[in-house]
Each structure stands twice: as structure tokens, then as C-alpha cells.
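Work Package 3 (structural annotation) set out to generate three-dimensional models for the target panel prioritized at the project kickoff. During this period the team completed the workflow that converts sequence records into C-alpha cells, so that structures can be stored uniformly alongside our sequence database. As a representative example, we reproduce one entry of 129 residues exactly as it appears in the project archive.
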Amino acid sequence: MSNRWVILFLLIFVSCLGMKGTFAYRTYQHETYVKMSDGMEIPEGETFDWVYRTDSFWGDGTVGIVLQEKQIVWVDIAINRQKVDKLTPHVYGSVGLLTPGEYKIVLVDKKKLIDEISFTVYPVSPDEY
């Protein structure tokens, strides 16, 4: 009887873990991806590609990708979907030219949050060009 409780506990624990992974990005200056950290800063006028890597995608599915900008509240400015499976457990995207402000990339699965990361686009002074 106690084995059943242990198995039940493990199943609940594993299902609550969710899909967590790592965000990475690269700009035109980088040949390889670099790990993103929450709150990182990007200069205005910089575009970058990003990838989300996890081994937790089980089976086939679709991941919703939302780029949000902080205004008075978080506002969706781009929405996309991408298929994932066990063989390709990656989600890719690109961020184009953004105005200075706070942004975040949010990944969802059937209205359930998978993961998110925030970043800031800062203005570049004319001296930096």
C-alpha cells in the first residue's frame, strides 16, 4: 500500500515540474548562441535570434510564443505558434527592431505558462554609433 502512495506522489511531483529549459540568443556579432539572463539589456536597433531548449517536451505538441511590451500593463505585440516533439525539443524566434522599453518572451502550452524571460531595450546615444 505504501508503494502506491510513493508512486502517486512521484507522478504528481513530476507533473507539477512543468517544462523548464534555457533561453539563449545570438546577434549578428555572434556565431553561437549565448545563454540569456532575465533582465538582460539590448541596445536599440539590435536584432537577435533566440532559442528555448528543453528536454521536457514529451510527444508532439504546439507551443505558443508571445512577445510582450510593458506599457501600463503587459501588451502582446507578436504572437506565433511552433510545433515541437521529442526529436526537436527547441523553440526558435527572432526579435526585430524594438523601441526602448521593457519586453518579455512568453512560451505557453494550452494557456499554461511554460517559461518566460524579460529583457530591456535601452536607447543608444549618437556617440555610440
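Confidence is low (pLDDT under 50) at residues 1-17.
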